[in-house]
Structures are given as structure tokens and as C-alpha cells.
Amino acid sequence: MLAPPPPDQQVPDLGTYSAGSFTRGRPALVELAWIVVQTIFVSSALPGSTHRRFLLRLFGASIGAKVVLKPGIRVKFPWRLTIGDHSWIGEQVWIDNLADVRIGADCCVSQGAYLCTGSHDWSRPGFDLITAPITLEPGAWVAARASVGPGVTIGRGAVLGLGSTATRDLNPWTVYAGIPAAAVRTRTITSQN
After folding, report:
1. Among 104, 80, 97, 91, which residue's Cα sits nearest to residue 52?
2. In percent, how much of the chain has pLDDT > 90?
3. CA pair distance 59, 45, nearest whole angstrom
4. H or E element: which one contains 58?
5. Structure confidence by residue, pLDDT tens digits, 129-151
């Protein structure tokens, strides 16, 4: 059991919040234009991936060949997003990329997954911003409703199971489940013969 804090413990003072060296990466008008375009065309229920790939690229994302982008996806800053060839991004995925998010080739990010690159330093009175990139190596799968935290690398071919939360790097070719995610088995892909 944790000891109670001392009676003179300082309380948070959000008025002293600092974003440190963080920058949004584009002028406010570009960000505003992205918000409008995303709301109308990218996050909408319109079917198809072609227009989503085009618009994300137009705003600075690096999107590979034959990437599938389902309706309802949200991307904070497209200029901080890279998606490799043949990857799939499912319905209602939120890529909250205050820092870079790199999704390798042949990855799957399933419905309702959340990739979060930002947090707060709860030990500072101002609850200061902390950001760190996320990387999904080729062949990784983030299952439906799973969450990936700042600074996490999901290894090649690794799986983060349904509703699980990755707060640390996941080893290649390993299946993880739970909150926080723990290794449960090795991933083996069999031939289709």
C-alpha cells in the first residue's frame, strides 16, 4: 500500500503549463484547413481510400501504395504520419500524432484503435507536455480498441490484442494482451497451401 502524500504536498497548477519545445509543425491556417478537410472528407462515412490517400498526401503524409484507409479515421497532424505499402487503417482509428507515427508495410490498425504520442508530466506542477514517436514495424497488428502509448515500438510481426494497451515496446513475432500488455504467445504465420 502506498503511503499518503505529506500534508504540505504541492497541488498541480495548470496555469504554469508548458509545451516546452513542442511545435505544431505547420502554420495555424494549414492546420485549420486540415481540420476542415478531415471533417468533411477523411473522417466522413464516404467509402473508399483513394480520396483519403490523396488528401493525407496533400497535407504532408507519406502514404505507400495500396494503403486502405477506412471511414471515420482521425489524424492529428498528417505531416507527421508515414504509412508503408499495403497497410490497413480501420474505421474510427485515431492517430493522435503530436510526434511522428511510422506505420510499416503490411501493418493492420483495426477499428477504434488509438495511437497516442503525447502525455503529461504528472510530477510537474504545470502538467507539462511530453511527446514521443510511435513505430509499428512491418507486419504488426494493433487489434480493435487497442491503445499504443508514446514512445512505443511494436516489433515486426507483433500483435497487440483486442482492447489491450501497449506502454512499452513489444517484441517481434509475439502476441500481447491485457492492460498493460503482456506477452501471451509467439506469432507463427503458416503457409496458405
Report:
1. 91
2. 92
3. 20
4. helix 50-58
5. 999 999 999 999 999 999 999 99
Please measure the distance between the N-terminal and C-terminal CA atoms of the chain and give it in whole angstroms: 55
In the three-class reduction of DSSP (H, G, I as helix; E, B as strand; rest coil), residue 57 is classed as: helix
**Threshold 0.85, pTM exceeds:** yes
Residue 54 parent element (H or E)? helix 50-58
pLDDT recorded at residue 3: 82
Backbone angles phi, psi at 148, to 5 degrees: -125, 125
Q: Is the pLDDT confidence value at 121 over 80? A: yes
Q: Report which of 132, 142, 134 is spatially closest to residue 92, judged by C-alpha positions.
A: 142
Residue among 123, 188, 114 nearest 146 (CA): 114
* DSSP characters over 134-157: EEE-TT-EE-TT-EE-TT-EE-TT
Confidence check: pLDDT of 27 > 90? yes
Instruction: In whole angstroms, give the CA distance from residue 136 to residue 133.
Output: 10
Show Cβ contacts of residue 125 under 8 Å, excluding neighbours closer than 6 positions.
10, 11, 12, 13, 16
Nearest to 85, CA basis, from 66, 109, 112, 100 = 66
77 SS3 class: coil
For residue 129, the cross-strand partners are: 120
Q: What is the torsional sign of CA 167, 89, 30, 40?
A: negative
Report the pLDDT averaged over residues 76-80: 98
